[in-house]
Every structure is written in structure tokens, then in C-alpha cells.
Amino acid sequence: MIRETAYDTIFQAQADFRLIMDCMANPGKIHQLSADIQAVEALLPASALVGLALMNADVSFYVGNGHQTAESYFVLNTSARPASAAQADFLFLGGQEDAASAILEASEGELAYPEKGAFIILETMGVSNEPLPDALALVLRGPGVDGERQLFVQGLNGQVLEALNQKNQEYPLGIDTIFTDPAGHTLGLPRSIKITID
Question: Whole-angstrom Cα distance, residue 116 to residue 72?
Fold first, then answer.
């Protein structure tokens, strides 16, 4: 198991938390998360940083494809507890087709408590405001977006986007999502945003 001894659980976590919140408040704005962490092979460093910044002993999480090393990493470093996709507060998933089923299982919250909807961390191969090879061109519309915003995502299956849109049909119920990539780029997509493929 890996304990992050170099990660500052106060100052670094607070800085990352503010950056993640800015991602969510400005859909389509790309930030970068970077810190001196060891993480594990089953997680992108940016995904690990999101978990370190947001999770604690009061929440639960799910890691796609049953990565035991990633589960152990988060238990050790955040004290969060593993759970099923349907019960988890945070879901760490890849951007490929098999992530769609976990997204469809994720909690959408309740009308009295919409904030109980799950938070998805979706790993991709690349996120950019400029065209990327073999990338999906996405168009975002909704609160926080001036008209519409285009971005490009590599390693993202169209069925995953369909699952996200399906879960967010009945706002304020739904799930919030943040995309990460190997370069540390992060992109926030709150449940109020509509996503189409250009």
C-alpha cells in the first residue's frame, strides 16, 4: 500500500479543492492538477488528487474494474470506504464503454437532497480546447457557459456521454462529473450542463 507522505493534506488539498470547485463553476474551463504524489498505476495522478482533495471518512467510493490497489490507496490516504457503484458518493471510471453501466447505476440524489447525487471522476486520454487526434468534439450548453463552448476529449466513448446525459435529464437530480487526463488536465461538467457531440 502507498501512503502519500509528501502530500500536504491541508494546504495542497485546499488548493486542489478550490481548483476543482472553479472547474465546476466554469464548465469547459480546463485546469491542471499537479503535486508530488506517488498514486498507483490504476489511477491517473489527477484522479488521485481529486480523491485526496474531496474524500474523507464520511464518504464512500467506487473504482471501476475492481482495482484493489486503487481501493487500498484511497482507504489508506482518505479513510473513505469502498462501496458499490449504486451506493458510492464518488465513482472513479475510465472513459470507455464499460463505464456507462456504472454511471447508470450511480445515485442521482433525491428531490429533498439533490446534493446526494454521485460525483464521477472520468479518466480520459486527453482533454483540450483545441482539436486532438481521434478525439470527440463536444459542445457544452447551460449555466456557466456563455452561449456554447466546444472542447475535445480523447479516449471517451459516446455511450458514456449518453449515460451522463440520461442521468442528468431531471435537474436538480443528477450527477456531477470531472474529466481528467494523463497530463493532469481537469474539466468540470456539473449536472446542469447539456453535452452534445459536434
Answer: 24
